[in-house]
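Sequence in, structure out.
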Amino acid sequence: MNSPLSNNGLGLLNRRNFLSSAAGIGLASLLSENTARATTQAIRPLIRPDNPLGSRPTHFAPKAKRVLVIFCSGAVSHLDSWDWKPQLLKMDGKPMPGAKENFLTFQGENGNLVRPLYDFKPRGQTGKMVSDLFPHLAAMADDLTFIHSMTAKSNTHGPAENQMSTGFIFDGFPSLGSWVSYALGSEAENLPAYVAIPDPRGVPQAGVNNWGNGFLPAVFQGTAFNSSRPIYNLARPEKVSVASDLASRDVLKFLNEKHLEKFTGDTELAARISSYELAAKMQLSVPEVSDLSKESATTLKAYGVDDPHPVKSGFAKNCLLARRLLERGVRCVKLYNGAYAMGEGIGNWDGHKKLKEQYDKHAPIFDQPSAALIRDLRQRGLLEDTLVVWCTEFGRMPTFQKGASGRDHNPQGFTVWMTGAGVKPGISYGSTDELGHKAVDKITTIYDLHATILHLMGLDHERLSYYHNGIDRRLTDVHGHVIQDILT
């Protein structure tokens, strides 16, 4: 039988045979693509409607069972904290090389380069250069994994916070913790899978977007409360007796379950019943986890709970609350430092006008409690399977703003760090240029950060998805690579 490429056995290619052959090649290619797509298709977790927060299996063996994200709102200056640039000392007071006249950034014209406002010193056995801004955390430099080449897509706080929390600069997308609880559920039967702990002074600029569920089912939204502000509408009204409350709850449960028997496919009703049951359990569990009175005097002192400064004491209590939530099986905790209700730089890290004056106030509030939290997790053995991530929405410029004593926004290069389960301690990954302006080596994106966090939790960021409006949505969109060099 002749080949489709032959004509009467002579090997000649006529028009009909060419089209037939091309169609065959196209079909083979299509089948190959479909096969490849099938092997990397999205994995959607199997969620029981009657127990949407039940624990679920990972894609592969995880290094971390839970994640703690510590977020400093307002954009901490990497140049005055973690990213040592000796060249900035040498060029203090000089114009930025290559910058045009009237060099403009987010808030306007920039002045000259300004040296780090805090002294840097070698720390620990690694000799890592960290500034005196955070002395307690600096002493832990051997335990931290620094990423000095992080970049963001926006130089505006709200969108940049959105990206750090959700992967997108726009509103309406699920936060990291929502994706994690959607994928894995929770090991805490009486507590939410995902808790956000706002700063004692208020919430970050993007507000609830930072812990929102976006288009994921509402059950995966973060539950926000802190040591001083309980969960709203959780307590029983004083005018309602315990007996009446329990009886009403039982009647409601009975009616819902009877309705569900008739409409077994009503997943929203099943999830609502589950939410009611969790809320009932939380009436007991949340007051218990928020009660710090059983903590030892040594622990309270280490965190700074007894500090006379009310904001530091409040943040210290929040840090202790974070540890108590993690040890009780909460899957994701987001701990916030800094809030926007008080104005630019006053209650947050947005140091445009008087950076050192403001940071001198903010750093003592943040430093001791955060370091105590990490040490406490380690001493209790929790850091072995807990991933801790410190981040901020972007960095700041190596120059001062013209006519001011502060640094403008800079998303082109800044620092985040990690510690705990699955990451190599005491290393630095990537770098910015000699002035700390732009990431130049091993440039890293927030997509990469999210992909790495999911990987350590046993999740493949390319396969974890949710079908929404005709699109398989991912936390990392169509981007992101796991940062393999920092993993154990």
